[in-house]
């Protein structure tokens, strides 16, 4: 019963039909899985079967036991977090990647993978308007890419002594970012051995963007205390609200004090495919490194992070290590990407970028992105015009941050409670999926119009649903 070539062929054909059906019907599933903790675990036997089981049986179990525990990220009613988009072309590439099963750690283990990656990073760099001084490499996630930036900055600053001797003899390094940046930065600072206490959170303005004067003040204070400023991290699109830090003044400060300047554009980097949105990254040429995730908004299956860096020599010197078994004749002539990041083993991720960019074309991707931004603008207008809803942060791209604020409730705790309840009720019903954040301490609902297959009708239905549920939630209050 174990699959052979012929039965694999048959099963795979059937599976492709299932895949196409799934995408077509994704909007009919409850978006967030409705399962309770332990629901899947208890359905799976405690040990694997001794004998081969038929694929039909395995697939039927998948439908029955696994699918109910899946949250449907490819549903057009998925408005939560940031999307993790796929597309048909990306799925096809992933099928090939899995079939080849190539482990692309060095050029020799698949020259085409290394060279396609090099070319795709040039395509992407040019598409998002980064200067030619940047070279790119694919990483698994933005968290890893930012860690690479911090480690490279640390090594460059210490003349590669930390790699040699450890941090014991090093000065106290300081990293600067706004309090609105993603939690991965704090995690990376901890992993890099720099210490969470040395991550300096800089105040933000009314748009939730870092205040450059406060950044310079913090650097000067640190210098007086004998600390060593190491890295400034700007967010081009924060996770909570897609707030945009001012890259130009931040980059100038970085240059003035000889500090590494890293830009986290994990989500909003994709918007830079649109020339009209590039003003958000004015000053990006001052950056030393830049990260964005095609696996979020750019229709490319998770995982696929594009990391761009100017000083590739320092990056490689930070990470390269050459045991006998990895030596090849082409050392130094080709890109061995294992030296450009943390893991040795690497998936062939460039293929899906190639498929997506060719099949959708730049115009196809731009059209979708513009449409997503338009949908968010429409929703923003509805919220602004509605007397019982309010916008909680400026909309920069396709994320709308709002809360329900009916007349008669002015107490902030009460408003937080009402909005939490609204969110839970909406998500429990399964018609759409939203997530929350805090804006200036206030409970805020986030709605991202960025899913590959989202259309106007989905956003309109979501807005109707939100109003309907909100009104019902407040009924008991009104009666009081
Ligand atoms: N940076 C920002 C601004 C993000 O929004 C996120 C995730 O949403 C990350 C970093 C982390 O991304 P990843 O999951 O690729 O590590």
Give the cofactors and ligands: pyridoxal-5'-phosphate
| Tally of separate domains | 2
Give the integer mean of the pLDDT values. 95
Q: Report the span from N to C terminus.
A: 66 Å
Report strand %. 5-15%
Strand count, sense and barrel status of the largest sheet are: 7 strands, mixed
The CATH architecture assignment of the largest domain turns out to be: 3-Layer(aba) Sandwich
CATH topology of the largest domain: Aspartate Aminotransferase, domain 2
The unreliable regions are none
Which CATH top level class of the largest domain fits? Alpha Beta
Order of helical and strand elements:
HHHHEHHEHEHEHEEHEHHEEHEEH
Class from helix and strand fractions? alpha/beta
Strand order of the largest sheet: 1-7-6-5-4-2-3
Number of helices: 14
The general outline is globular
Total strand segments: 11
**Gyration radius over CA:** 24 Å
CATH superfamily of the largest domain: Type I PLP-dependent aspartate aminotransferase-like (Major domain)
- Estimate percent helicity: 40-55%
Summary, kept brief:
By secondary structure, this protein is an alpha/beta fold. The protein has 14 helices and eleven strands.
Walkthrough of the structure:
The protein has 480 residues and is α/β, with parallel strands linked by helices. The protein has two domains: 102-347, Aspartate Aminotransferase, domain 2 (3-Layer(aba) Sandwich), CATH 3.40.640; 357-479, Aspartate Aminotransferase, domain 1 (Alpha-Beta Complex), CATH 3.90.1150. 43% of the residues lie in helices and 12% in strands. The chain is built from 14 helices and eleven strands. The chain has helices at 5-25, 55-66, 88-100, 111-127, 142-157, 161-165, 183-191, 212-224, 247-256, 294-297, 312-319, 350-385, 412-429, 456-479, and strands at residues 135-139, 173-178, 199-202, 228-235, 260-264, 289-292, 305-309, 389-391, 399-404, 435-439, 442-448. The strands form two sheets. It has a seven-stranded mixed beta sheet with strand order 1-7-6-5-4-2-3, sandwiched between helices. A hairpin with a 7-residue loop joins β8 (389-391) and β9 (399-404). α5 (142-157) crosses α11, α12 packs across α14 (456-479) and α13 packs across α14. The radius of gyration is 24 Å and the shape is globular. The mean pLDDT is 95. The site of pyridoxal-5'-phosphate has 14 residues, from α5.
């Amino acid at each position: 019963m174990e699959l052979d070539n012929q039965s694999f062929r048959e099963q795979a054909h059937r599976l492709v039909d299932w895949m196409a059906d799934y995408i077509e019907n994704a909007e009919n599933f409850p978006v967030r899985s409705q399962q309770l903790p332990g629901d899947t675990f208890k359905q799976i036997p405690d040990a694997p079967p001794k004998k081969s089981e038929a694929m039909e049986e395995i697939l039927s179990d998948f439908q029955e036991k696994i699918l109910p525990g899946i949250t449907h990220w490819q549903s057009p009613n998925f408005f939560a977090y940031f999307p993790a988009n796929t597309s048909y072309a990306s799925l096809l590439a992933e099928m090939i990647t899995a079939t080849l099963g190539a482990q692309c750690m060095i050029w020799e283990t698949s020259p085409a993978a290394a060279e396609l990656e090099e070319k795709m990073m040039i395509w992407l760099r040019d598409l998002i308007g980064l200067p030619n001084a940047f070279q790119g490499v694919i990483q698994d996630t933005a968290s890893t890419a930012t860690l690479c930036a911090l480690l490279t900055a640390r090594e460059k600053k210490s003349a590669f002594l930390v790699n040699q001797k450890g941090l014991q003899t090093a000065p106290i390094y300081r990293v600067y970012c706004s309090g609105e940046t993603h939690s991965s930065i704090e995690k990376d600072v901890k992993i890099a051995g720099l210490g969470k206490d040395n991550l300096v959170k800089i105040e933000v303005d009314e748009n939730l963007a870092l205040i450059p004067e406060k950044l310079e003040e913090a650097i000067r204070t640190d210098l007086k205390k004998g600390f060593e400023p190491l890295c400034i991290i700007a967010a081009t699109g924060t996770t909570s609200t897609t707030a945009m830090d001012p890259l130009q003044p931040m980059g100038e400060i970085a240059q003035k004090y000889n500090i590494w300047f890293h830009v986290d554009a994990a989500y909003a980097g994709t918007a830079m495919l649109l020339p009209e949105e590039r003003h958000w990254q004015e000053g990006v040429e001052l950056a030393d490194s830049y990260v964005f995730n095609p696996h979020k908004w750019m229709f490319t299956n998770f995982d696929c992070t594009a990391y761009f860096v100017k000083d590739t020599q320092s990056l490689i010197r930070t990470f390269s290590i050459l045991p006998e078994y990895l030596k090849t004749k082409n050392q130094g002539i080709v890109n061995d990407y294992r030296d450009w990041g943390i893991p040795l083993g690497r998936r062939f991720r460039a293929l899906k970028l190639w498929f997506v960019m060719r099949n959708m074309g730049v115009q196809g991707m731009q059209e979708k992105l513009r449409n997503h931004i338009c949908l968010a603008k429409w929703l923003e207008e509805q919220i602004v015009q509605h007397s019982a809803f309010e916008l909680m942060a400026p909309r920069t791209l396709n994320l709308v941050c709002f809360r329900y604020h009916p007349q008669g409730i002015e107490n902030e705790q009460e408003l937080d409670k009402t909005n939490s309840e609204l969110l839970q009720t909406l998500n429990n019903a399964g018609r759409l999926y939203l997530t929350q954040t805090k804006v200036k301490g206030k409970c805020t609902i986030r709605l991202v119009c960025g899913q590959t297959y989202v259309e106007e009708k989905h956003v309109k239905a979501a807005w109707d649903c939100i109003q309907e549920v909100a009104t019902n939630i407040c009924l008991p209050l009104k009666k009081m």
